[in-house]
Design goal:
This protein has 24 helices and eleven strands. With 745 residues, the chain is an alpha+beta fold. The strands form three sheets. Strands 6, 7, 8, 9 and 10 form a five-stranded antiparallel sheet that branches. A four-stranded antiparallel sheet has the order 2-3-1-4, with helices on both faces. The protein has a two-stranded parallel ribbon with strand order 5-11.
């Protein structure tokens, strides 16, 4: 592989005009596709294999035209102090608002509070339910404006009016902190390279790669039902890995220049060595993201595949466009150790003051690695204990999906949620819908009554509506209001109790009882994700373990990499629980409302963090492997790996943390949580696991770290990540037929 990538790097360097033209054309094509694509609708949220989804599908079949996936709104009214909603003036205001709402072109129905028993017992609060023909993301702006205008008119009449539901659902925004993250990345690159030109190359290529990836996602969003969160997460991951992959190749290029090689040769060697690490690091990320498909939640699968596509683009750009841009930059990219005029004199031009035979001053990475090698056990214990302490809050992890109760208190959705809780009880915000399928029953009406009566006798039930059958009379819906809030353990227990009772009723009457609704769907999602976590870990870690065996030709090094990942991801989950569930530093992070951690957060973070953790493992340990293969002793190989790789890995980690932290300013709670989780996970993995625990373990293992059974060594393909084959390929010079041979290949 190293030889092929070496030729590819030299080809891109020589044919830079052609390479640049291809990427610019792809960016233009993706941009035109995104601009001309129809707007994305609401991404379908289906959970195959769950009871809630089965009931939802049954409703669409047995209640045609009911717009089961249409947007909803609850317009909540509260009377002024000392008045009631049943007073003549307030009643007239509400009825006027209901009439105005019913005139909307996309409105399917509006329920009058006074005929639908939607007034609280004390008469202070009432609500009108509005149902639309289309989903919240597909609503016209004029429809949303009409909803807000109707509410405002009622406010002008003296009522307190708030709007809940998903009708006012907005596209999530990332905020200015995303730009700050990119700015921090730019500063780190300038400090690392000491050159504006060299620093600009990773930023430019990362932005082009993200532009192509996100534009492609936007162009396909409507056809593939991709939500807005998909493109934001693809941008987050694409920016981080795009900058890092380019950073490693540019750094290796400068190191090759410092050894006296010509620029074209240096570009080829940089792509052949660092590029090999980029390919395998990218493969681990892609495996982790595509592996999310095992969860069998379409939305999560689409998010993973879209982000994986952006990572693949980042790898291709790093391998081709970076050497092309290095060709354009020429002498403006200095060898390692030399700085541009704006950052001081070249170190090579400074007079040497060292005494003859004196060793050059060791850099920080060398000094740190030497310290770890001398005291490996102490460093290992300190790192493991520290991460273990950070992981303690993860034992209290509670999972759930966000509802209006998790919105900031400044939003009308949250205020409507609080008013409904005040007037009708906390469970009113998360009613359960029970679907009774009596098609196989001899007495459907009796079956409906039996189910309703059975549910009324359960603990934790406040109200049960009479069964509402369909036209054929073989299916009915029953609404159940719990006495606890939607995200509570008590509500989850009630859902299971209803399902258990349904089994007895089916045996008695032949009618099947199913529980659905947003609350039941959230419970089923959490359980499905919990059940899928172990198989997902086995699949992803297993595939990556095999891949790393090929890369490092070792058993213990990949095993150590996987165990280190588990430490960092558990510590990161602990930090997420502490901030978003317990409320520690919530003000600093902009978390206005604490609550359960989003159900998809752990498994998504496991996938992404594993891929990124393997990035640093590959980049850092391949340098150690390279030194060991070239004859250094194990301890010295660890120090050499840090000498050449620690500065760059540190810069890459800081950049990735800055990019992820930039998304903490998002208005979407899932994006905010994932941004924080990934940023803290990168910190733990890069600076504690890879910079401390990894060298400590390698120092303790010595030569045993690189042990591989002979039979396995013979069976594995030799991918030559260290670039051993380039020693002869580079010395024989450029082959005039290389371009044609590579094109034919």
């Amino acid at each position: 592989m190293a030889t092929f990538l070496y030729k590819l790097g030299r080809l891109a360097f020589r044919r830079r005009h052609f390479v640049a033209l291809i990427w610019v054309a792809l960016l233009t094509l993706a941009g035109v596709g995104a601009a001309s694509a129809p707007p994305a609708g609401n991404s379908s949220f289906s959970i195959p294999g769950t009871e809630a989804q089965k009931a939802f599908d049954l409703l669409e079949q047995r209640f045609p035209g009911a717009s089961a996936d249409g947007a909803t709104a609850r317009v909540v009214f509260k009377a002024p102090s000392g008045e009631k909603m049943t007073d003549a003036g307030n009643k007239a205001t509400v009825q006027k608002t209901v009439d105005e709402l019913a005139d909307g072109s996309e409105v399917a129905s509006v329920a009058d509070p006074y005929t639908g028993n939607a007034v609280s017992k004390d008469g202070a609060i009432a609500y009108a339910s509005v149902k639309y023909d289309v989903s919240g993301m597909e609503l016209e702006e004029s429809t949303k404006d009409a909803l807000e205008d109707a509410a405002q008119q009622a406010r002008d009449a003296g009522l307190t009016v708030e709007i809940g539901g998903d009708a006012l659902q907005a596209v999530p925004e990332t905020g200015a902190t995303e730009v700050i993250g990119i700015a921090v990345a730019a500063v780190v690159l300038v400090i690392t390279f000491g050159s504006l030109v060299a620093a600009g190359l990773p930023l430019l290529t990362a932005l082009i790669g993200v532009g192509i990836g996100v534009s492609t996602i936007t162009a396909l969003a409507s056809a593939l039902e991709l939500g807005s969160t998909t493109s934001i997460l693809a941008m987050m991951i694409g920016l981080a890995v795009g900058i890092d992959y380019a950073l490693f190749i540019v750094s290796r290029y400068r190191a090759e220049l410092a050894e006296g090689r010509e620029r074209e040769e240096a570009a080829g060697r940089a792509v052949g060595t660092a590029g090999s690490a980029v390919v395998f690091a990218g493969l681990t990320v892609v495996i982790a993201l595509v592996g999310l498909a095992v969860v069998n939640i379409p939305m999560l699968t689409k998010m993973g595949v879209a982000a994986a596509g952006t990572v693949a683009i980042a790898v291709l750009i790093a391998l081709t466009m970076i050497p092309a841009l290095l060709g354009y930059a020429g002498r403006r990219v200095k060898p390692a150790g030399a700085k541009g005029r704006r950052f001081g004199r070249s170190r090579k031009s400074e007079p040497k003051t060292e005494a003859p035979g004196a060793q050059p001053k060791a850099n920080l990475g060398t000094r740190w690695a030497s310290f770890v090698v001398r005291r490996p056990l102490a460093v290992l214990l300190l790192g493991v204990i520290g991460l273990g302490a950070a992981a303690v809050p993860a034992a209290s992890l509670e999972l759930g999906l966000p509802d209006d109760g998790s919105q900031p208190t400044s939003t009308t959705q949250r205020r409507a949620y609080d008013l409904l809780s005040e007037g009708f009880g906390p469970g009113f915000n998360g009613p359960l819908m029970v679907v009774v399928d009596a098609k196989g029953s001899d007495a459907p009406k009796d079956a409906f009554s039996d189910v309703a009566g059975k549910i009324e006798g359960l603990d934790g039930v406040v109200a049960v509506t009479p069964p509402a059958p369909n036209k054929d009379g073989d299916t009915a819906t029953i609404t159940v209001v719990p006495d606890s809030k939607p995200s509570s353990v008590q509500t989850e227990d009630l859902v299971h109790a209803i399902r258990d009772a349904g089994g007895d009723i089916e045996a008695k009457t032949g009618a099947e009882t199913l529980v659905t609704g947003s609350t039941a769907m959230n419970i089923d999602v959490s359980e499905k994700l919990n059940d899928a976590l172990v198989p997902y870990l086995v699949l992803v870690v297993g595939l990556a373990f095999l891949l790393l065996i090929v890369v490092f030709r070792s058993i213990l090094v990949p095993l150590k990499a996987a165990l280190g990942f588990l430490l960092s991801v558990m510590a990161a989950l602990g930090a997420v629980v502490a901030v978003f569930q317990w409320g520690w530093l919530s003000g600093l992070m902009g978390v206005e409302e604490t609550g359960p951690v989003m159900s998809m957060m752990p498994i998504f973070m496991v996938g992404v963090v594993f891929g990124l953790a393997m990035d640093y493992e590959v980049f850092l340990v391949t340098r150690m492997r390279e030194a060991f293969v070239h004859g250094e002793k194990p301890h010295q190989a660890v120090v050499t790996g840090f000498k050449h790789g620690a500065r760059v890995v540190t810069a890459a980690a800081v950049i990735m943390m800055a990019v992820f932290a930039g998304f903490i300013g998002s208005s979407e709670s899932m994006v905010k949580m994932i941004g924080f989780g990934l940023a803290i996970a990168v910190f733990f993995d890069a600076f504690v696991v890879r910079m401390a625990i990894v060298p400590a373990v390698l120092a303790l293992l010595g030569k045993r770290a690189w042990w591989l059974p002979k039979w396995l060594d013979r069976a594995l393909p030799n991918v030559d990540v260290e670039g051993e084959g380039l020693r002869t390929a580079g010395e024989r010079g450029a082959d005039p037929d290389e371009d044609r041979e590579l094109v034919r290949a």
